[in-house]
Amino acid sequence: MRIDLHCHSTASDGTDTPAELVRNAAAAGLDVVALTDHDTTRGHAEAVAALPSGLTLVTGAELSCRVDGVSMHMLAYLFDPDEPALLAERELVRDDRVPRARAMVAKLNELGVPVTWEQVARIAGEGSVGRPHVAAALVELGVVPTVSDAFTQDWLADGGRAYAEKHETDPFEAIRLVKGAGGVTVLAHPAAEKRGRTVAESTIAELAAAGLDGIEVDHMDHAADTRARLRGLAKELGLLVTGSSDYHGSRKTCELGEYTTHPEIYGEITRRATGAFPVPGTGGA
Predict the structure, then answer these.
(1) How far apart are CA 3 and CA 60, in angstroms?
(2) Which of 105, 122, 145, 184 could form a disulfide with 77 if both were Cys (CB 3.0 to 4.6 A apart)?
């Protein structure tokens, strides 16, 4: 089985619609794909409706978190999307994205970059607006060559000249909320240092003690030695080890299935979940 547990669609900052994502996942030879848009489940229904036979969909979300001043992301799988407490927190985070993006546009204007809110909103479309949409605007204007090049201290990286904060969930609270909704939690790309500051291993240990299920080890932003170190940490802490592409369509260079999760780990995730269940494809639309 080929299992990719971290993908994005136009419901947040990917370039494939949810329907296109599942069709492309099947075409890429995946058996299981997770739709984990930022702080939203809005794309799930479309993905389910288009799900090809032979492909299973894991529903989820990537939750924006912050601890000790460090931004981090928590992958949440197979939770009840209508559970009130987790739903309210997702909406709080999502609603803060627009004023945050407007603040980044204002900072860029102060730096002499002629980006406009209308441009960013056009790029975001119906998705949850975020830094990648602002980064894409910088690419359109020729300020940077790629979206990744916008995530530096010169521009949009944490603490960068045009960075602006938004509401982010305490990760210990995120674990509690996801567990309360019957879901499973995995810390996304915990050592992706090129994105900015990362959480300390001592914090990961505290999260594990609080109920964190796993860490995403096999990821494009982790070098081979980093992956080896994280595997050792996961073994020490009793955490599941996942791998995934963090696919965003054409917005990033990674491909579907670039990194994958072992079937035994996927099976354990599904065994632990009680809020929702993987959806097998029946042919799609």
Answers:
(1) 14
(2) 184
